[in-house]
Amino acid sequence: MKRFQTFIASSFVAICATGALANDSVTIAVQLEPPNLDPTGGAAQAIDTVVYHNVFEGLTRFEADGAVVPSLAQSWDISDDGLVYTFSLVPDVMFHDGTAMDADDVVFSLDRARAEDSTNAQKALFAGIASVEAVDPLTVKVTLSQPNGSFLFNMAWGDAVIVSEDSIADIATNPIGTGAYKFSDWAQGDRIELVRNDAYWGDAPAIETATFRFISDPTAAFAAVMAEDVDAFAGFPAPENLPQFDADPRFTVLRGNTEGETILSTNNKMPPFDDVRVRQAVAHAIDRQAIIDGAMFGVGTPIGTHFAPHNPDYVDLTANSNYDPEKAKALLAEAGFADGFTTTLKLPPPSYARRGGEIIAAQLRQVGIETEISNLEWAQWLEEVFKGKDFGLSIVSHTEPMDIGIYANPDYYFQYDNPDFQALMMDLTGTADPAARSDLLAQAQTIISEDYVNGYLFELAWTSVVKADLQGMWENQPTASVDLTALSWAE
What we know:
With 491 residues, this protein is α+β, with helices and mostly antiparallel strands. The chain has 13 helices and 19 strands. Strands 1, 8, 9, 10, 11, 12, 13, 14, 15, 16 and 17 form an eleven-stranded mixed sheet that branches.
């Protein structure tokens, strides 16, 4: 309970009724409920939102500014040829079930992630690992097949956290990690509760208990924040309401950026999208600014490729897919679809997708493309679109940090298969020189833009509404996370 002086009974009751006494607990609202709690086996960013750095930790991790810093690995040495990383682990780290975390757990976690039958959504992160060896209980040697300038960055992803073989069978519903918070309860459809791990190896966080509430409806989100039923809403889904919170001294509005490239995902192997002219027609039929204005109330940055505009290596390629409906019609006619065609548009729950989908459907209709809209729950979207590849078009934000490498995976859900791009990504992996990497990244952005792999819409902004006396919420989202360890209440 929040520290307080002696109050008369009536004041005590009034303060308790408003929830103002709890300075060792916090309730965070988010829009999406995770389908499971295994970041090493699920693709949904909603998983990392809850468990990244809170429940699970990796060898390295992302900080609020995007920097990669030590986590379970307190230090490392890199061989002169860049092939061998020798990690020194933090001593006396325990999993939440009381078992010790040591080098064998790192070997298990990385070998599991890179195994042939791995279900890790970002398996490509581990493809360059040739071997993982426990030198002693606190030392792990990772040998790469070729130098990789992004290896420490890759190890900071939620997909690379260290897990225990003893608890892996139940990880999806009973996650056991090494983090500062332990899983407590999951009332599906409503909330997940975490409690502070008093045996944590690092600094004890200020917050003792945390509740993640799931509120998908923008109207309900607004009501919950205004009523102070929640202490913060991370990724507030109704940008049209932000001016009201700006004017209310009870709240602080955080406006930051994400790594979330919001795209009109396109199934490159499903006719007629296997024809680049059709994909180009779709791109020219889209008015990005109208989508940003209509779905996001002006919050968002137009993009012309799969890369974050705030990254210093970003190339502005929006002109490749400028809004030109007449050109779109001409391209469709050239491809044999002068009378248009019908396809599916399968939308996950976020408001950017649902609202944006209606606008895009109307824009495509103007050039002769009819869409059959299906509003899917997150688990359905993952099953039908991401895993089953049963879709024509979809809308989603890819929030993983600097993830242009997904276009080198022909089995990824939009099924883009370009050997030249794949070779370019291999070159990038083996290149350490910053200038040379910048050049390769510029080439990569240009290839997928000119191949019109997807419809590139906007970089998702990150807006959160926070009670004015709650400190430490991340302004930006270098990775999907609500870092509870950074939170505290002002005295």
